[in-house]
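stuck on this chain:
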Amino acid sequence: MTTTRTIRTFTHLIGGREISSPTTFVSRNASDLADVLGVFPQATIEQVRGACLAAKDAFHRWRHTPAPVRGDLIGKIGTAIEREKEHLAYLVTREMGKTLKEARGDVQEAIDTCHFFQSEGRRLYGQTVPSEMPNKELATYRRPLGVVGIVTAGNFPVAVPAWKIIPALLTGNTIVWKPSDDVPLTAYALARLILEAGVPAGVFNVVFGPGRSGAGEHLVSMLDEGLLQKIAFTGSTAVGRKIGEIAGRNLTHPTLELGGKNPLVVMRDADLDNAVTGALWASFGTGGQRCTSAGNVLLDAPIYEAFRARFLARVAEIRIGDPNRYDDVLYGPFINERFFRSWEEHYTWGETDGGALLYGAGRITTKSRPPGFCGDPDTAFFGWPTVWEGVRPEMRLFQEEVFGPTVNLVRVNGIDEALEVANAVEYGLSSAIYTQNRLWAHRFKDDIQAGMTSINNSTTGAEAHMPFGGVKGSGNGTRESGIWVIENYTYWHGVNDDVSGVLQLAQMDTAYVAPGAPFHVADLCVPEMP
């Protein structure tokens, strides 16, 4: 007997109410596109505006909630996510296609973020500052910005939203979140866990829909209407530049966590087995759909051939397939068809530029599949692990983020050329070097143009108490995670408290100590002997 599964229709979460829209879209299982997970509303601009107004109305009350009390709520959010970790990880695997092991890590990072920030509610310190005037006190305070718009990508559907939502709430801001339309079911589940903790109505609002010409674009436009005091975005550099322009004309400072073309350097003295394993994970973990994935593996000339042989042998062994059915695959499908089509174009770039294709053949099909593929490739968009060589900095293949299971092997000679080539890209997010030479490691971490560096480890991976972010085309200097992120969601308020009862003018009425009579040390010198 065949059973029919009811497909649930979901709503926006605005001002403590569930609100639907006339237009909807569906979420699908990334590994089986015939499997519909839910129906979601596409927010209109009026609904996005309404969410911002709800957040504005809730701001006064929330900012005056004592910070330790807000921290206690963050702890409750972490407890709720931890309780639902396995189910939430399962949703991540179904909806965006990463392995269950990675999905668990994605969720755990949100839990770690909550644990870290729970106690930060008791450490939102200001300073007391000595005044140059008598009977006067100077102090500084952190103040929340107001309503924060948050737009996140689909490749880390729990961790990355938590990086933004948790510190924004802790510091007293209210939120309108537009999650990726690739992972709305996971986002809805996370949002309900956040609300379960007791967030007051209007403090945390969620609107669904596409980014371009949809809820994402509508939310960014609220900057021009004065309904947002902050926008935080994770996504492509091209979109980040546009958001930065809009934020700039409104004199707001956006958080922009953007793309990467990350170098992984292997020096002649490296432990090759460790380096190969690290490069394999950096290149093909999550199917290369990480902003921190390795794009260019720079190999010191004396070990180029040995590394190349070992690396290609490991690439040929990679297991790929539906992570819902096979728990030993390294990676699953593309998150969506759009990402696949964009990745597919890079084969033309390589051919045009004269790169040499060592391994890979585009989309995996029943007639074209690597030996490690498991299951039916026609249920979704799966890509061959792809390796190029003969790639130089002037090539598009070297410069542009591919965002898929592709890596370039690039020959360099020595640490000086390795650094020059590593820095020859627009991006500056993550980086890595494999070497036993401490001077080379020091040179690399000192001279690399990147926000993050690993020594004898992969380009990917972040911990909740370390700063995450890049330079150049990878961001605008803001950071996620750790104590550094608090700067992004607060401003400094300086207070001058004069209890003297009279007007005292700094620099003009300051009673500096008058100097005494001049004293000349030369007077103490013994005259020279005749």
Q: What stands out?
A: DSSP finds 15 helices and 23 strands in the chain. Residues 28-258+481-491 form a domain with the Aldehyde Dehydrogenase; Chain A, domain 1 fold (CATH 3.40.605.10). The two ends are 123 Å apart (CA to CA).
